[in-house]
Amino acid sequence: MARRGPWTVNSKAKVFENPYIELHTYDGIRPDGAPGIYGVMSPKSYAILILPLFADGTTMLVGQHRFPLDNYSWEIPEGGSSKSDPPLDGAKRELQEETGLTAQHWREILQAETSNSVTDEQAFGFLAWGLEEGVQELEGTEVIECKRLPFMAALEMAVAGEIRDLPSVAMILKAHYMAQTGQLDTGLTQAMLQGG
């Protein structure tokens, strides 16, 4: 038996695995003393989030169909990165693959737990600026549309619920807060807040 917070864990079993995730069940004693079971989905990679910022105050969103909810989603560039690599390496790769963009400057602004009641996934979010355009290198599972728009328009989409992907909303709100509180480069801040 082992403790996991207020739970007592008697056993752990892997019930599913594919190249991307593992699903484990924990059998034990709940905090109220009754027998219980808990399921945890464990991605094999970190979640990587990138908010690209152009010098004119615009950003780039990506649109794609998301299989689990069978819907179309506007998001910031995102992806997975091996836990054996630094998250920044994954961010550089994902930005280039999904948008064709490369960046001269990077700053980590967010570490988050994406849905900590059901998964142990960890997310790392980066701002990218000093951007140069290139060619997308999409994976076979991806069909991605890119949309460049003013940062403030992306903020409005996030607040209005037109962007429903929570990591994207968190990154956009964090960047807006940092711009308003003087935590970003002055020129970049002015461009972002003036609407691109």
Describe the structure.
The protein has 196 residues and is of the alpha+beta class. The chain has two domains: 42 residues; 149 residues, Nucleoside Triphosphate Pyrophosphohydrolase (Alpha-Beta Complex). The protein is 23% helix and 45% strand. It is built from four helices and eleven strands; from the N terminus they run ββββββββαβββααα. The strands form three sheets. A four-stranded antiparallel sheet has the order 1-2-3-4, with no helix packed on it. α2 crosses α3. The longest helix has 15 residues. It is elongated. The mean pLDDT is 95.
Task: Summarize this structure briefly.
With 196 residues, this protein is of the alpha+beta class. It has four helices and eleven strands. 23% of the residues lie in helices and 45% in strands.
Largest sheet: 4 strands, antiparallel
State which percent range the strand residues make up.
over 45%
Low-confidence runs of at least 5 consecutive residues: none
Mean pLDDT score, rounded? 95
Task: Compute the CA-based radius of gyration.
Answer: 19 Å
| Total strands | 11
Order of strands across the widest beta sheet?
1-2-3-4
Order of helices and strands: EEEEEEEEHEEEHHH
Global outline:
elongated
CATH class of the largest domain: Alpha Beta
Helix tally equals 4
> From the coordinates shown, what is the CATH architecture of the largest domain?
Alpha-Beta Complex
Which structural class do you get from the secondary structure elements?
Answer: alpha+beta
Helix content: 10-25%
End-to-end Cα distance, whole Å, is: 57 Å
Number of domains: 2
Specify the CATH homologous superfamily of the largest domain.
Nucleoside Triphosphate Pyrophosphohydrolase
